[in-house]
Design a protein that fits this description.
The chain has helices spanning about 5-15, 20-50. It is mainly α and about 50 residues long. The model has no long low-confidence stretch (mean pLDDT about 90).
Length: about 50
């Protein structure tokens, strides 16, 4: 791969990530994980109460 091609690929990649906001992504996945955990805990409590 020529140097020109490498530079062109790096520029394309930089353009793609220019508007990427890591904070928004982390918040989104953090909220998603919290909701998932709440559903799992609710189901576990429900199963546990049915066992007794």
């Amino acid at each position: 791969m020529s140097r020109t091609t490498i530079v062109r690929e790096i520029r394309k990649t930089a353009e793609l990530f220019k508007n990427f906001d890591i904070t928004k992504s982390l918040n989104f996945y953090g909220n998603l994980a919290t909701k998932y955990e709440a559903v799992v805990n609710k189901n576990l409590r429900k199963e546990y109460s049915q066992m007794q």
